[in-house]
Write the structure tokens for this entry.
Amino acid sequence: MKFSKALGQGIFPLKFPLTSEIFAGLTLAALAIPEVMGYTKISQTPVITGLYTMLVPMVLFAFLGSSRHLVVSADSATAAILAAGLVGMAIPKSNEWMALAEVLALLSAGFLLIARVARLGFLADFLSRTVLVGFLSGVGVQVAVGEIPSLLGWENLASVPQAFVRIFTHPEQISWVTLALSVGVVGLIVGLRRVSRQIPGPLLAVVLSLLAVPVFHLDRFGVAVLGTIPHGLPQWGLPQVAWSWPLIQKLIPTAFAMFIVILAQSAVTSRAYAERAQESFDENIDLVGLAAANVGAALSGSFVVNGSPTKTQMVDSAGGKTQVAQLSAVAVVVVVLLFLTGPLAFLPKATLAAVVFLIGYELIDWKGLRRIGKERPVEFAVALVTALTVIFVGVEQSILLAIGLSLISHTRHGYLVTNVVLLDGPQGWRQKPAQRGLFAEPGLVIYRFLHNMYYANAHTLKKDVLNLAQDTVTWFCIDMVAVNDVDFTASETLRNLHQELANRGIRMVFSEMQDDVRQEFDRSELARVFGTDAFFTTLDSVRDVYRQVQAKKLG
């Protein structure tokens, strides 16, 4: 798909009623505004910047992205990476911190554009579901536990261990009114969700908290509020930093970690909703939209944005089918920024802490972890290691670990391939575990290799063939239906096997070889080694020719 054809694909053609799209946008705004404000607590940026992520970035992705469903704005995982990456480089929420956050958004956009030029959208497939579950669960624990001090009214106490120590040593210092408010907000949101996910519980909690402050004079009881929030639309401009190569070098690892999460999470979400709607999307075109969205975030005073599964589900549940819903949400955010930031100054910080606590808790995929543990204990260990790395080491390090574990898992599947032999019967060909003494015809072994042949599993190929080519074998056929690549090491292994089997009086042939693999055989001169008559299109043709050869020998 060319980029020009993808322009506006998420919006046009509009095949769905405009009223349903607008309603979905209003629902998204009602649910997402408190959520993105909460994400600013994770990213340690001013509250207003969360609203900014629902302006320019959303508009740019709506017009430049391919997906009709993906919602792009602030996200908990990338917000956590941002905060972890900037520790020690600036004071949280300061102008310098915000400028560095904008630079990170630009660098992330750069990585996304590089990935688009190199057509690397497929790399998202190499982050396995297992490590993503572990990563997001680890982020969830980190986010939820990190809000405990704020839930207790200890805004200036950043250390969670210190908070637990103080709970037991100085319980009298707990702000019980703040704690009651926090519990009330959590209870309200959870309760309304059990009634219906369509009810904007976080929005109602925010509104009721705003009303409670003046009505019950909560500020007199030590309940902290947000304070003055800037109003109006964001100002445009480049990040105000002292640009230098050493600064870029410090930020590149954090930006790369963000890029990996954006690449994986956005692609998985887009694919899931496109398949559900039986629509198509282009991962590489989405990279352009995501890059543009992050450039827009950086230039409009915000921080890195990502494809959000939760917000995408909000729109889908409300009946939204195109990016028109997202543009409708943008219009609502504009109204809030122009006219409603004044009342937000009285929002208790504990309310946002409670919203973020629930966001973190919901990121912990208990159901997914249980399923992985039940079905694949080894992969559960991978997910657990990834989660523990997030919690105890760091978010950036866990991303690198996740990539490494995913690649190891991928290599392991090819390395530990379990192959089969094929037997002919009344109901057709059937597979059996590869073991000696199983023949398709007396003296004929048909062996199916169930993976690409490459350096890591070439020894398995050699071991299996030599083990099976015993007893009264006269023909040995390798079925290549599952093989679409044979590397240099595997080619040399086949060459050596041909010679060794020939020394035993066994002929080596192939069946169901794909055209690309046959061309590789021609380039490596393996076709000449085996002979043009060693290649068969079907299993039946192998069997029939073998019978004819045996009949001539007996005749």
Observations:
- Residues 245-276 form the longest helix (32 residues).
- Residues 147 and 353 are 6 Å apart (CA to CA).
- The first strand starts at residue 71 and ends at 73.
- The mean pLDDT is 86.
